[in-house]
Give the backbone structure.
Amino acid sequence: MPDSVLPLLTSVNRADCIDFREAGMEAKVTNRLGGTTELSALTDDYALWQYTISSQVEMKLLPMNDSTNIICVVHTAQVPEPDSHIAFYDDHWQPLPTTSYWPSLLATRNQSSSLSTLHLTLSPEVSSMKAEFRKETYEMKDENAVMTPTTETYWYDWKEGTFTLR
């Protein structure tokens, strides 16, 4: 994995976390900013990093066919509301075009331009993803602005090389 995927961690940090996790130890290291990063979950095809106190990174190996996989990486910032960014890579960590693997989700987000954040959650057990679109609307009540949050939840399953809406 190139440093650009997890820029706060050195290659030694990443290797240490994997070694600690596989040894049944707490997989925490000091990152380049002096904070703590933890590898919270690790399986053959999934990793969950508590990247900083306010962000996490999920990685999932997704099958394309019998011999080819791609890597899905979801970065989520937790403050003030969760907001995610997704990227896809081939098995040599070369970036792939995002729209090739989840065009329906992008179309949904683009049609709903008033939606302010997107929170993605990968499933470690199966190849699926939960997408929560959040928006906030404000209205005046008794001379005070009142915020009303709205969440729209969608589930996507990995089928035939793309995430498709359930």
In short: The first strand starts at residue 28 and ends at 30. The helical segments are 11-22, 103-111. Residues 109-115 have pLDDT under 50 and may be disordered. The CA atoms of residues 99 and 106 lie 7 Å apart.
